[in-house]
Amino acid sequence: MALERTLSIVKPDGVQKNLIGEVYRRFEQAGLKIVAARMMHLSLAQAEGFYAVHRERPFFKDLTKYMSSGPVIVQVLEGENAVAKNRELMGATDPKKADKGTIRGDLAASIEENVAHGSDSAENAKIEIAYFFAAADICPRTR
Ligand code: RTP
Ligand code: MG
């Protein structure tokens, strides 16, 4: 199976609760390699642009306000089946429904403040990676 890339974000609640290391540990243990990373404090406009697919949803305003409320760390993960593997590691959107052993099941406070974002398809991963990174920012791992 070919290597795949996905876009991951440790959301403001994850950074605030000092969970960056814990989330990265889970990626690395699962064989997902970090090939680009960047800490940033999103503006409201950047959060709105990133989550534009959800602009008609009732939670859009809250979501974008929360996503711009503090620093996040954005990373590109590379590995076999990276999109699905990252979604598996994160667990269900709502931590009440997420399995134990998943990032959200173990660490998230609510359906909104749920620690991590992960692209939901290979096609969206390409769009989301390009939203934050130039091709030259990505450092393919040879070992
Ligand atoms: P994400 O895009 O952040 O990886 O999360 P997801 O695919 O599991 O869930 P999605 O439906 O794409 O929703 C995006 C984010 O919006 C917030 N949300 N709030 N209040 C609510 O009912 C609600 N529903 C979703 C969450 O932060 C969710 O991760
Ligand atoms: Mg989503």
Automatic annotation (TrEMBL):
Catalytic function, reaction form: a 2'-deoxyribonucleoside 5'-diphosphate + ATP = a 2'-deoxyribonucleoside 5'-triphosphate + ADP; a ribonucleoside 5'-diphosphate + ATP = a ribonucleoside 5'-triphosphate + ADP
Keywords from the UniProt entry: ATP-binding, Cytoplasm, Kinase, Magnesium, Metal-binding, Nucleotide metabolism, Nucleotide-binding, Phosphoprotein, Transferase
Location(s), subcellular: Cytoplasm
Cofactor requirements of the protein: Mg(2+)
Major location (coarse): cytoplasm
One cellular component term from this protein's GO annotations in UniProt: cytoplasm
Pfam families: NDK
GO biological process, one term: CTP biosynthetic process
E.C. no: 2.7.4.6
Binding site for ATP: 11, 59, 87, 93, 104, 114
Active site: 117 (pros-phosphohistidine intermediate)
Molecular function, one GO term: ATP binding
Enzyme class, broadest EC rank: transferase
Cited CDD domains: NDPk_I
Domain Nucleoside diphosphate kinase-like: 3-140
HAMAP family membership: NDP_kinase (MF_00451)
Family listed: Belongs to the NDK family.
Role description: Major role in the synthesis of nucleoside triphosphates other than ATP. The ATP gamma phosphate is transferred to the NDP beta phosphate via a ping-pong mechanism, using a phosphorylated active-site intermediate.
Oligomeric and partner information: Homotetramer.
Protein's name according to its UniProt entry: Nucleoside diphosphate kinase
Name of the gene this protein is made from: ndk
